[in-house]
Amino acid sequence: MKTLQKQDKIYEGKAKILYTTKRPKLLVQYFKDDATAFDATKRGTIVEKGIYNNKISQRLFELLKKEGVPTHFVRLLSDREMLVKKIEIVPVEVTVRNIVAGGMSKMLGLEEGIVLERPVLEYHYKNDSLHDPLINDDHILALKLATPKELAKIKKLSHKVNDVLRKFFAEIGITLVDFKLEFGRYPAGAPKTTILLGDEISPDTCRFWDSATKEKLDKDRFRRDLGNVEEAYKEIFRRISSHA
Ligand code: 5GP
């Protein structure tokens, strides 16, 4: 298939850029090396992060598709670019937690590493100026951020993604601690839409711990100045690639 060229930049985020293509329903998602943390108060570059996150996301989106989770991923275009379906992002970030870490540890005063009896789903309103506040189902429905049907679908898909990814990562010696997902409506702007998983799935958006050593293999190495940041992204890519 011929490579679709990127045209106009329509969005630039902290880690990715979206470009239009000549096909109105398709975009190019470009992965940058820029890294930010703590509401973008900490900034830096993780060399070749964009390449690894693009390819890690590709592999995980393909796996999820095979397991029945619809995603925006269409195909890989280059080292840093993937072709995706244009979606209208639901302004709710879904966090799925299997083990206490990060925000949950801080919010509830719990020690990092406590294994949760069952996965915890959290919703955050996607709004940088409000610092992505924690919200619940009632906020989502009352503010019409999603319809009841959409929310039910988002919840079901989030649990499914957790089941699929947890098993996959366990097979390559990695514990999936937590992760963040974003969903969108497709086709964007149409009167009748379906929910697709969007964004990326990578060490930027997940916490991965080596199952044997508990070593952190994700963006926490950047957030907490733990060193060997590039190596962690590379190691996740290497392990994913080694899976049959
Ligand atoms: P926490 O709420 O503990 O900071 O984050 C939980 C999980 O979601 C972590 O794996 C983290 O990487 C991911 N996450 C939460 N919010 C964001 C965000 O705004 N950007 C990115 N890249 N990841 C996030």
Written account of the structure:
- With 244 residues, the protein is an alpha+beta fold.
- The protein is built from six helices and 15 strands.
- The chain has a five-stranded antiparallel sheet.
- Helix 1 (49-66) packs parallel to helix 6.
- It is globular.
- The two termini are 26 Å apart.
- 34% of the residues are buried.
- The model has no long low-confidence stretch (mean pLDDT 97).
- It binds guanosine-5'-monophosphate.
- Residues 93, 95, 101-104, 132, 178-180, 204-207, 219 line the site of guanosine-5'-monophosphate (5GP).
- Helix content bin: 25-40%
Structural class: alpha+beta
Strand content: 25-35%
Largest sheet, described in full?
Answer: 5 strands, antiparallel
What's the end-to-end separation, in Å?
Answer: 26 Å
Q: What Rg do the Cα atoms give?
A: 17 Å
Low-confidence stretches: none
Side by side, the strands of the main sheet go 1-2-3-7-6
- Write down the secondary-structure element order: EEEEEHEEEEHEEHHEEEEHH
Mean pLDDT: 97
Instruction: Figure out the total of helices.
Output: 6
Number of strands: 15
Short synopsis of the structure:
This protein is of the alpha+beta class and 244 residues long. 30% of the residues lie in helices and 32% in strands.
Walk me through the topology.
Blueprint: E1 9-12, E2 16-20, E3 26-31, E4 34-37, E5 42-45, H1 49-66, E6 73-78, E7 81-85, E8 88-89, E9 92-99, H2 102-108, E10 115-125, E11 134-135, H3 137-142, H4 148-170, E12 174-181, E13 183-186, E14 194-197, E15 206-210, H5 220-223, H6 229-242
Antiparallel strand pairs: 1-2, 2-3, 3-7, 4-5, 6-7, 8-13, 9-10, 9-12, 10-11, 12-15, 13-14
Helix pairs in contact: 1-6
This protein binds guanosine-5'-monophosphate.
